Amino acid sequence: MGETMSEKILSKHAGQKLKAGQLAQIPVDLVLANDITAPISLREFKRLGVEKVFDPEKVVLVPDHFAPNKDIKSAEQCKQMREFARSQELAHYFEVGRMGIEHALLPEQGLVRPGEVVVGADSHTCTYGALGAFATGMGSTDIAVAMATGQIWMKVPQTIKFVYKGRLPKWVGGKDLILHTIGDIGVEGALYMAMEFTGEAVGQLSVDGRLTMSNMAIEAGGKAGLFNVDDKTVQYLKGRTDQPYTIYRSDPDAAYARVIEYDVTKLEPQVAFPHLPSNARPLSQVGQVPIDQAVIGSCTNGRLEDLEVAAMLLNGRQVARDVRCIIIPATQQIYLQAVRNGWAEIFVQAGAVLSTPTCGPCLGGHMGILAAGERCVSTTNRNFVGRMGHPQSEVYLAGPAVAAASAVLGRIGGPDEL
Amino acid sequence: MKLKGRVWKYGDNVDTDAIIPARYLNMSTAAELAEHCMEDIDLSFVQEVKPGDIVVGGNNFGCGSSREHAPLALKGAQVSCVVAKSFARIFFRNAINIGLPILECPAAVDGTQAGQTLEVELETGTIRNVDTGAVFHAEAFPPFMLDLIRAGGLVEYTKEQLKERK
Ligand code: SF4
């Protein structure tokens, strides 16, 4: 019986042959925490009684959730993290003005490579599976131990293989594929499992679109969301990293828990209704849903390709009178590119807000909190009760094309209606 | 270890934003977080929860973000244990790592109403509904996790390991 990609990567790291279901200590290549999870990690790190992190090149800290600091308490949390980064001489601490949302930033900066194992105190660490790495989110205490020892206990997951057949229709992207998938298998459809995304349609996606899909593996309960490395991945890595890396592929006879196939030829853009990412519907079945806000950003859809779609649709148009449209480039580099490409001007002319990189409204932090009864269409990844503000507000998840079109229409709708 | 407490019962997919809303993540101690535990889905929880109480949930309890603040908030509210049909992966790890007992037992969840009293024996995974007399058996933890729990959580366990290595 052959092995899955996950089994191969984890076996290689552990130095012993591992099968799905086995518990093992796994050495890691990169450890991540942010301004809300790091404070607990640092507290536990201290309790461990260890002086130094296992490798100052391999511990990454990013202030992105409540930064630029939204209040005094957030400022204190960022300060703790900054001081730790300085005293430990961490190579990769990204200060405000040079930072980005962690899961957009790390791949962009070439810090993640195929075949590596990455753990982060953030559930969307699974994003890096798009580059053929085994990446998964954990809690702060786990991350404290990983920072101290360079390894962590893990259970080798079983794998569900997804095969996306056919060619992608216009306006259908990675976000629509993953919302459709979660809508099909449910928010615990891949609980404790690795998801492998394959097929002609995902080959068509850019690396940005793949990062979007891996990002939301956790929304199906998944431990990781992996893609095979292809020419596009190799191109993406060129110029970002000069470190060697190993490409792993699942064997043709690997033991999968399930194989699920989709024909995407007729797939429409998807919208997930409140209050679960699995409440996905095709755009044509959304009906009349007026909105108060549209958010385009986050680690899911705040990348260059997402802003490009938004710019294309907002060019020469106006955000509807009753809508606040908030656009948040996920990193400084993306922000700069948006300025250079003239998109910044398009956004401002259209009557949208263009924000510095931050998680902000995605988790109801700042920069666009909803009041009771308000509705937002958002390119983020979660629409739980109270996620973007008041417990009686509503979040509808969609890709950047639907979010931008909706901002203009004043209700949830698609680019074809503009 | 025997735990006994009154039951707070919730449905499927209780997410970590429900257990502790993100707006409170500018704090990180169990006591501070406990003051806002569950408030977006159940305002009475914080007001009426008593030390030892037991939270019972459906499938996929603790789904969503990786915030360890969620099990910490429950621990801070002095909840003695969580029983659910299934747990989200990261919540499961976090709870074990910080020493909040959790048990997976669909039958116990179906056989328990809010307000009833449960008695839980961790070593054997036995759950008894004091009101109805019904007894349920939860899945046993794998040996490695029992070691973690016995050591008092991941930090203590790692400390022991580090000492041995020296
Ligand atoms: S953008 Fe949203 S989902 Fe992504 S890391 Fe930030 S808070 Fe989490």
Summarize the structure.
The complex is a heterodimer of chains A (418) and B (166). Chain A is an alpha/beta fold and 418 residues long.
Report on the architecture of this protein.
- The complex is a heterodimer of chains A (418) and B (166).
- Chain A is α/β, with parallel strands linked by helices and 418 residues long.
- Chain A has 14 helices and 18 strands.
- In chain A, the strands form five sheets. A five-stranded parallel beta sheet of chain A has the order 4-3-2-5-6, covered by helices on one side.
- In chain A, helix 11 (304-314) packs across helix 13 (343-350).
- Chain B has eight helices and seven strands, in the order E-H-H-H-E-H-E-H-E-H-E-E-E-H-H.
- The mean pLDDT of chain B is 93.
- In chain B, helix 5 links the parallel strand 3 and strand 4 (102-104).
- In chain B, helix 7 (143-151) packs across helix 8.
- The longest helix of chain B has 12 residues, at 154-165.
- Chain B has 166 residues and is an alpha/beta fold.
- Classes of the chains: A alpha/beta (418), B alpha/beta (166).
- The A-B interface holds A 23, 36-37, 39-40, 43-44, 47-50, 65-66, 70-71, 73-74, 77, 120-123, 125, 137-142, 144-145, 148-149, 153, 187-188, 191-192, 221, 223, 276, 363-365, 382, 384-387, 391 and B 13, 15, 17-18, 21-23, 25-28, 40-41, 59-60, 63-69, 71-72, 86, 88-90, 93-94, 97-98, 142, 144, 153-155, 158-159, 162.
- Iron/sulfur cluster binds next to helix 4 and helix 10 of chain A.
- The site of iron/sulfur cluster (SF4) has 13 residues of chain A, from helix 4 and helix 10.
Count the strands of chain A? 18
Q: Could you spell the SSE succession of chain B in H and E letters?
A: EHHHEHEHEHEEEHH
- Global morphology of chain A: globular
Query: What's the end-to-end separation of chain A, in Å?
Result: 53 Å
**Whole-number average pLDDT of chain B?**
93
**Rg over CA atoms of chain B:** 15 Å
Q: How would you classify the quaternary structure?
A: heterodimer
Estimate the strand proportion of chain A. 15-25%
Poorly predicted runs of 5 or more residues of chain B: none
Helix percent of chain B reads: 25-40%
Q: How many extended strands of chain B?
A: 7
Please list the strands of the largest sheet of chain A in the order they lie side by side.
Answer: 4-3-2-5-6
Number of helices of chain B: 8
